[in-house]
Amino acid sequence: MTPRISVVMPVYNVEKFVKAAIESVLHQTFDNFELLIIDDRGDDRSIQICKQFIGDPRVHIIRHAKN
User: Fold this and answer.
1) 33-39 β-sheet, strand order
2) Across the strands, what pairs with 28?
3) I need a surface site. Which of 39, 48, 50, 61 has the fewest CB within 10 A?
4) β-strand partners of 6
5) Would you put residue 29 in left (φ > 0), alpha (ψ -120 to 50) or beta?
6) How far apart are CA 7 and CA 5, in angstroms?
7) Would you place residue 7 in the very low, low, confident or very high pLDDT band (cuts 50, 70, 90)?
8) How far apart are CA 66 and CA 48, in angstroms?
């Protein structure tokens, strides 16, 4: 089924908050969505935390290329 809504979450050095933010999105009662996590290449563990959620088919990580 094609997602009806895309939730876009930019991630840059938000290690302290990112897990709770992702869990909040995933626990919504409406579930016809995709969560696009935009890796803005911070230098903390944010993306490692995000990768814990890629088992959920609604979660996708998009990585910006280095300039």
Assistant:
1) 5-11, 33-39, 59-63
2) none
3) 48
4) 34
5) alpha
6) 6
7) very high
8) 18
Q: Quote the mean pLDDT of the chain.
A: 94
- 38 CA to centre of own chain: 7
Q: Give CA–CA dist 26/20, Å, rounded.
A: 10
Output the CA–CA distances (angstroms, integers) from residue 16 to 1, 11, 19, 39, in the order listed: 33, 11, 8, 15
Q: Scanning the structure block, which residue is given the tokens 């840059």?
A: 12
Backbone phi and psi for residue 62, each to the nearest 5 degrees, phi listed first: -115, 125
Q: Measured between alpha carbons, how far is 46 from 2 in angstroms, rounded to an integer?
A: 28
Structure tokens at 48: 């490692």
Q: Does the pLDDT of residue 66 top 80, yes or no? A: no
Place of tokens 């089924």: 1
pTM: 0.91
Please name the residue ranges forming H helices in the chain.
18-26, 46-51
